[in-house]
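User: Second chain of the day. Same drill as before.
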Amino acid sequence: MQITVTFRHIEATAALRRHAEKRVRHVAKYVHQLMDAHVTLSVLKRRHIAEIVLTADRKTLKAKEVTDDLYSAIDLATDKLAQQARRNTGKLKSHKVGAGKRGRATPPEVEEPAPAVAGGSLRMDVIRADTFNRRKGPDVIRSKRLPVKPMSIEEAVMQMDLMSSEFLVFRNAAHGGVAIVYRRKDGHYGLIEPEAS
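Assistant: Same format as last time:
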């Protein structure tokens, strides 16, 4: 397992690096075939941020915590990851047990956000994934409307970071079209600008 610790806007110290590596190794015992871990520690004004991404055999676990102390941010983020890993391991075990008795396990109910842009706002629909198998179309179980504000790409990235979100849909101030900025797994940002065909 490879553990990478990145420091942003803060001096790299051996003590913080050791603490992060120790806590990630503690979480590793709950994860099946952990391949690598990436820890990003940063300070923005008085906010101390710890972001941890664990890549396992078939799963990627992510956690982010913001506190006034980096050590506590690391501890809280690794606690979240341990909880996610235990929950995931429990699901895998329950499905294996159920598969032997009934011949086939039933798929779990998974909620996935499906963003759709309509007019001047973003509509977020949460759809149960197992409904695709039973009917012709999905059941929309929750809907939310959000304003799509005009802003520059830099403003969109800053807004996404402030919201601790993985993506942000906005109206590009340069040309007025809808755009999506998202956080990549390598820590950089991506931009999607749909074109009408």
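The first strand starts at residue 2 and ends at 8.

User: Great, on to the next one.
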